[in-house]
Amino acid sequence: MDGFTTFITVIDEWAWIGWIVLIALFLVIEMLTLDLTFLMLSFGGAVGLVTDLVGVPIWAQVIIAGAAAAAFVFFLRPPLLHRLSRDEDPTPTNLDALLDQRGVALTDITQGSGQVKLGNGDTWTARSFDGTPISQGSRIAVTEIDGATAIVHPVTEEDF
């Protein structure tokens, strides 16, 4: 036997160790990322390990493992991600929670200045959304947040 044939024979005989190392590496990376991508790749590696144990040639093991990993990534991962995310709290937080928040104008609000008290108790500097002056005591709603300034527009009693 020449050197190349010996090399291929050694790789073929010890491929199971390579598959186990690859699976372990993918699982460690998955524990760090928690994205399920590397978990799917480790499943593909497990398929490669099984094909090695049943005696499939190394070139076919790699092709089968790659195809299995791709199938897991494209067909198993999306429903798993959906299932994991369906119990998330849909309540907006941070700046998203302030959008469309109702409140009262504490001072006259112009395009350049003003102050509002929001329904959550926060007091914000404010500007009129479209430049229309809003008088003190008027009901308002937050349209957007620009730095530390609430951009607001007037709302009617029914909208409040």
UniProtKB/TrEMBL annotation:
InterPro entries: Membrane_assoc_protease, NA-bd_OB-fold, NfeD-like_C
Keyword match Transmembrane: yes
Origin superkingdom: Bacteria
Subcellular location as annotated: Membrane
Keyword field: Membrane, Transmembrane, Transmembrane helix
GO cellular component: plasma membrane
Transmembrane intervals: 14-38, 58-76
Domain NfeD-like C-terminal: 96-154
Topology within the bilayer: Multi-pass membrane protein
Pfam families: NfeD
Protein name, per record: NfeD family protein
Annotated source species: Microbacterium esteraromaticum
